[in-house]
Amino acid sequence: xxxxxxxxxxxxxxxxxxxxxxxxxxxxxxxxxxxxxxxxxxxxxxxxxxxxxxxxxxxxxxxxxxxxxxxxxxxxxxxxxxxxxxxxxxxxxxxxxxxxxxxxxxxxxxxxxxxxxxxxxxxxxxxxxxxxxxxxxxxxxxxxxxxxxxxxxxxxxxxxxxxxxxxxxxxxxxxxxxxxxxxxxxx
Length: 187
Description:
The protein has strands spanning 12-18, 22-28, 48-62, 65-66, 71-80, 85-91, 95-107, 110-120, 127-139, 147-154, 158-166, 171-173. The protein is mainly β. Residues 1-41 and 183-187 have low confidence and may be disordered.
């Protein structure tokens, strides 16, 4: 499985400049797909193909309860070498993590990830790794103004929905690069 964003589909080096983060050089390469057998909740040590940290605004609901006030101003999108793809809605104290393995991009500005897992590390809303069914859909230009909408249903009628609206360029991090401690600031 390769990332479906046209920007990430080729073997090349890119450099992005941002006012608040300085110069970032990203190496994006297509490596052979590894096993899709990943059922662990902690992906922090798993090798990744790329990470995109997107500035923006967020709305989130769990079981009809609005958790939008907990949202931080960033969403992290990670594609791992093992095929796992993640959209992490960040909060001040944790993440609301939608995860899947199957994705497609039928149009340049329309991307779909079929979800099969969800995890929450937000205090008071902790949720162990659970199986879900749903999708995350990215519409718009993933380099500046996309909207990411995730909807999923889990065990015991657990309903999850989140929407993230980008407000600037994502920070891209390639394999072997260090993830930043702070997300980029909105423009």
